[in-house]
Amino acid sequence: MRLDKFLVECGIGSRREVKDLVSRGQISVNKKICKNVQENINPDKDTVTYNSIDLIYKEFRYYVLYKIDGYVTATEDKKDSTVMELLPEWVVKKDLFPVGRLDKDTEGLLLFTNDGKLAHELTSPKKHVDKVYYAKLEETISSDDIQKLEKGVDIGGHITMPAKVEALSSNEINLTIREGKFHQVKKMLIAVNNKVTYLKRIKFGKLSLDNMKPGDVIEINKDDIYFL
Ligand code: URA
């Protein structure tokens, strides 16, 4: 792999920026300064160093964000701030995108990757990836409503797949669903004459928000997600 491609893939900068770093002698290959961006390197064998840090090449990257209110799930938006703006500098943003979608006012677990195949598998309803949402409700929830939600409700022409409801108090639930229809949780609660006043995704398959605070980002491995 060419040195400039390697540096771009490691998130060091754009092609132009890394060319500049190389020509200024800021990059070493196997402890020797290398000023040739076209140098062929073997990411598995050669050690490339920048700012005294040995760079590690990863084809696929996986990050979990504890999303906060007020950001749309998109890579770009003309009007609103996007979840990309919540990712700190150390996150390698190249080709990165959010997996699935949380509403602007929904908080909680959002996965990012550049691995299109995995993203597709995780969002396919056929793969049955459980998503657990904590919801605060405007009205008290009855056991009859819980039964209806678990069996499936009509959310505008679509009958939802079986779900699981855990009542935490008279107006707080954990709802487990496998689909990801637009505004699904909010629409499910409307279908039983209630209203979600706060929504947070707490689990996505094997992943959970354990020990994370709002706004936190962690890097994870494919093994942390994979169970399909
Ligand atoms: N269901 C919703 O209604 N909103 C979300 O953000 C996620 C699931």
What does this 3D model show about the protein?
Helices cover about 20% and strands about 25% of the residues. By secondary structure, the protein is α+β, with helices and mostly antiparallel strands. It folds into 3 domains: about 5-55, Roll (Structural Genomics Hypothetical 15.5 Kd Protein In mrcA-pckA Intergenic Region, Chain A); about 60-125 and about 205-225, Pseudouridine synthase I, catalytic domain, N-terminal subdomain (Alpha-Beta Plaits), CATH 3.30.70.580; about 130-205, 2-Layer Sandwich (Alpha-Beta Plaits), CATH 3.30.70.1560. Strands 5, 6, 7, 8, 9, 10, 11, 12 and 13 form a 9-stranded mixed β-sheet that branches. The chain has a 4-stranded antiparallel β-sheet with strand order 2-1-3-4, with no helix packed on it. A hairpin with a 2-residue loop joins β1 and β2. α1 (about 5-10) crosses α2. The longest helix is centred in the N-terminal third of the chain and has 9 residues, at about 15-25. Uracil binds near residues 102, 103 and 186.
